[in-house]
Amino acid sequence: MTARRFVLASASPARLRLLRDAGIEPQVVVSGVDEDGFPVEDPHQLVELLATAKAGAVAIDLTEPALVLGCDSMLEFYGEVLGKPGTAEAATQRWQRMRGKTGRLLTGHCVIDTATGRRATGVGETVVHFGTPSDAEVASYVASGEPLHVAGAFTLDGKAAPFIDGIEGDASNVIGLSLPLLRRLLAELGVGITELWNENR
């Protein structure tokens, strides 16, 4: 079997860990796309456009054939689209609003096959039910630094896990990329996900 080169167009350690745990060892190439440069109001369109831009920015510079995956995650919260809070103050305010409520974690995906120029895109959606951490717990969580640089100011696989009461849908989508959706997108391009497993290389 011919090995398929797989490139992750993201610096996210969570996405890298998900792929590795699923048997895929990608090459990481950060896209450098400005996430603030897309004035699109519809959250589904926005995450899909950002994912496509990230994958495309990396794919265009590759000199050897590869499958390139770009992703972008945001939290849709009562009509508002929330990305990375960036500051401790913003993360604290966000958690004070989210406590006891529900949001939808959206992750845009784009896979580009540079050998053919074909691409497949989709958006994963998972409902997240937030718990009710105390002010002291929120302060400690924000002080850890974890929520400042992740979509929605929380993680499902890190320190925020005790503050998430439950989800409806795909857990991997909340962590960074939907593995079931990735499988379907690869299939659209004629690639079986098992072809990417490390032991097949």
Number of distinct helices:
6
Low-confidence stretches: none
Topology order in helix (H) and strand (E) letters: EHEHEEHEEHEHH
Quote the distance from N terminus to C terminus. Answer: 8 Å
- Strand element count: 7
Give the rounded overall mean pLDDT: 93
- DSSP strand content: 15-25%
| Helix vs. strand class | alpha/beta
Helix content, binned percent: 25-40%
Task: Tell me the overall shape.
Answer: elongated
Radius of gyration: 17 Å
The major β-sheet equals:
7 strands, mixed
Q: What does the model show?
A:
With about 200 residues, the chain is α/β, with parallel strands linked by helices. The chain has six helices and seven strands, in the order E-H-E-H-E-E-H-E-E-H-E-H-H. It is elongated, with a radius of gyration of 17 Å. It starts with 5 loop residues before the first strand and ends in a 13-residue tail after the last helix. About 40% of the residues are buried. The model has no long low-confidence stretch (mean pLDDT about 95).
